[in-house]
Design goal:
By secondary structure, the chain is mainly beta. The protein has one domain: Elongation Factor Tu (Ef-tu), domain 3. The strands form two sheets. Strands 1, 2, 3, 6, 7, 8, 9 and 10 form an eight-stranded antiparallel beta sheet that branches. Strands 4-5 form a two-stranded antiparallel ribbon. A hairpin with a 2-residue loop joins strand 1 and strand 2.
């Protein structure tokens, strides 16, 4: 039987970048990055007779959503990149996210901004969520490092 284990997590050790733009400066409180594949790897369609089949997808694309405070300078860099992409259609860069306090790494060799974030203004500082579409999105979720 294994002995007791104590894992560590430190949100400041989660790093992400798209091309040369570091993405988590000015990150929001709470959840600041969400990563997911657009389609599940396997589905199980069932016919009217109840017979099922295991079906694998070949769609490995995914979505990375980065939530930043409105005042983050990272918004300025992403705005410039999207403006250039709207004019040229060529702003596609690698994306990566690594949890240095653990073993999780997500990456994509080809990622681009989907469009403009929804803007909300109020009496306090709000957030903006930028969406990167990734092809493919390669997940390597791991646990935390042990003490």
């Amino acid at each position: 039987m294994a002995g007791p284990r104590l894992g560590n997590y430190d949100s400041s050790q989660v790093k992400a970048a798209w091309g040369v733009i570091p993405l988590l400066a000015g990150r929001s409180a709470g959840n600041f990055i969400t990563l997911e594949r657009r389609v599940r790897t396997w589905t199980m369609p069932v016919g009217i007779d109840g017979e099922a089949a295991r079906t694998r997808t070949n769609d490995f694309t995914g979505v990375a959503k980065i939530t930043l405070r409105n005042g983050s300078l990272t918004n300025t860099a992403l705005t410039a990149a999207l403006q250039i992409d709207e004019l040229t259609g060529v702003v596609v860069s690698p994306f990566f996210m690594t949890d240095f306090s653990g073993l999780t790494v997500w990456s994509s060799p080809l990622a681009f901004l989907e469009g403009w974030p929804v803007e909300t203004f109020g009496s306090g500082e709000n957030t903006r969520t930028w969406t990167l579409l990734c092809s493919p999105l390669i997940p390597l979720p791991g646990g935390s490092k042990s003490l």
